[in-house]
Write a structure and sequence with these properties.
Keywords: Aminotransferase, Cytoplasm, Glutamine amidotransferase, Repeat, Transferase
Domain SIS: 43-182, 215-357
Bound molecules: 6-O-phosphono-alpha-D-glucopyranose
Strand order of the largest sheet: 4-3-5-6-7
Structural class: alpha/beta
Distance between the termini: 30 Å
Number of helices: 14
Shape: globular
Oligomer: single chain
EC number: 2.6.1.16
GO molecular function: carbohydrate derivative binding; glutamine-fructose-6-phosphate transaminase (isomerizing) activity
Protein name: Glutamine--fructose-6-phosphate aminotransferase [isomerizing]
Length: 367
């Protein structure tokens, strides 16, 4: 079917706005709304015997894997490794018997990810893929394939594919944790409820679109932009930086907030916007203190947080966006939306080809 932009000027913006709906679709397929428990398809192997998880992807899909590592380790208590397909496939890593290998790909056709999958297969891993294309090569070559339900993604810079990947990964983690007994039924219900609320909270986040368009004016003038986050906020910092460089061609870097002292702090001056991803979770105070270090050096902080975080910090940032207060488990999903919108508006101000940025391909099927 022919896909149009509707009333949106670009596919990317349309796809950002579709996120509440498509995440709802992904949840509909994997959660049972009546008992608030996960409802995964049957697995042809025993999830309780999984000893290690290896997650592989490229680009934005790799970033989804990085978020999932925190979830697998903290919620399901399973040692988890994440790697970029083009590195992993050549490393000759030994993979443990009974290991689970999770491949994340919007297209299901990325050459390096497919090669890594073939390697994991030879290493006797159970293979799950998380893809957006049901009949893709990756889906066909997996033991279990979970669909992201994002619908066709046209913008080269991935948006709704990423947030639906996170949604599906969150469900997978809960399923694994429940079966391994690392969470009780009440916790499972709490996490499922938090996920169920993500579509409507995401709609609230979309209400900040105009505000982010204003903030984009400050960012559009920069030569370099730094994104900082901790915990699951760190991969979102990486993803925010990736979005910005892909479509606005401004150099951007995502960094773990605690690692900033070990390098990027040298770059900070009055011309450097620093986007701080800081939901009020157990790491908030640490991130806030990194932010103070940035402000002390004249950096222009754009602070993404919630009511509690903003109250704690006081009025010190150059710009603040107040996001809804949510369970920290789902915060990385919600905090993705403002970094997508920010990159989008900067690109529009720069006059770039937002949906088809130079030199990039939607799907990389050659090495
Ligand atoms: C390309 C696209 C990215 C995407 C990456 C991985 O670089 O431009 O948006 O994240 O490939 O693609 P996949 O289809 O495997 O998720």
């Amino acid at each position: 079917a022919l896909i149009g932009k509707g009333n949106f000027p670009h596919f990317m913006l349309k796809e950002i706005y579709e996120q509440p709906t498509v995440m709802g679709d992904a949840l509909h397929a994997l959660l049972n709304p009546w008992n608030q428990l996960v409802a995964m398809p049957p697995f042809p192997f025993d999830l309780t015997r999984v000893t290690k998880v290896t997650i592989i992807g490229c680009g934005t899909s790799y970033h989804a894997g990085l978020v999932a590592k925190y979830w697998f380790e903290t919620v399901a208590r399973i040692p988890t490794e994440v790697d970029i397909a083009s590195e992993f496939r050549y490393r000759g890593a030994d993979m443990p018997q009974g290991g689970l290998a999770v491949f994340i790909s919007q297209s299901g056709e990325t050459a390096d990810t497919l090669a890594a999958l073939a390697y994991a297969r030879k290493q006797g891993q159970h293979i799950i893929s998380i893809v957006n294309v049901a009949e893709s090569s990756m889906a066909r070559q997996s033991d279990v394939s979970l669909l992201t339900q994002a619908g066709p993604e046209i913008g080269v810079a991935s948006t709704k594919a990423f947030t639906t990947q996170l949604t599906v990964l969150a469900c997978l983690v809960i399923a694994l944790a429940a079966r391994r007994g690392t969470i009780d039924r009440e916790t499972e219900q709490r996490l499922c409820r938090a996920l169920t609320e993500v579509p409507s909270r995401s709609n609230d986040v979309l209400n900040h679109d105009q505000r982010l368009a204003e903030i984009a004016r400050q960012v559009a003038e920069a030569r370099d932009v730094l994104y900082l986050g901790r915990g699951t906020g760190y991969p979102i910092a990486l993803e925010g930086a990736l979005k910005l460089k892909e479509i606005s061609y401004i150099h951007a870097e995502g960094y773990a907030a605690g690692e900033m002292k070990h390098g990027p702090i040298a770059l900070i001056d009055e011309n450097m916007p620093i986007i701080v991803i800081a939901p009020s979770d157990n790491l908030f105070d640490k991130t806030a203190s990194n932010m103070q270090e940035v402000i002390a050096r004249g950096g222009k902080v754009i602070f993404l947080s919630d009511k509690a975080g903003i109250e704690k910090l006081g009025d010190v940032a150059a710009a603040t966006v107040e996001l809804p207060e949510v369970d920290p488990f789902v915060a990385p999903i919600l905090y993705t939306i403002p970094v997508q919108l920010l990159a989008y508006h900067v690109a529009v101000l720069k006059g770039t080809d937002v949906d088809q940025p130079r030199n990039l391909a939607k799907s990389v099927t050659v090495e």
